[in-house]
């Protein structure tokens, strides 16, 4: 039984063009995520999908039971792949994710999805705190332009800053090609 799993975080319709909260570079990130997903499926490595829903119908996006809150077709679950529903940025908080992973003897995680500065960051840091060895696929992750204190921060810079921080102390940060061309 493999001791690793792919964690796909929040690749949901609202983050794509036409959704309520579209991300910069989401289509390219989703294409790369699809390549990584295919690699994990081909090798029989477990895949866990994370899906976020806010708990109220007046949420800015990921409204409960909406089309926007559904997993995008580029990474739809199949063959009994579990879907973990979360209501917080950290996919471990108040979910069965840790129990699911530990029950399968998983110790290594590959993480991709959205958004770099919120759910990816929170989930990766929590995973490391729980003792998992984490790899982040940086070009299979998207985010948004941000603003802080009158300063506009382009998505590319937001993403780079978060990937640099994760690479410094939390995870191995790699490109899609490194994952799909690595030996099993």
Automatic annotation (TrEMBL):
Annotated Isochorismatase-like domain ranges read 5-148
- Which Pfam families does the record match to this protein? Isochorismatase
Q: Which controlled-vocabulary keywords does the entry list?
A: Hydrolase
The protein, known as: Isochorismatase
Please name the source species: Acetobacter malorum DSM 14337
The top of its lineage is: Bacteria, Pseudomonadati, Pseudomonadota, Alphaproteobacteria, Acetobacterales
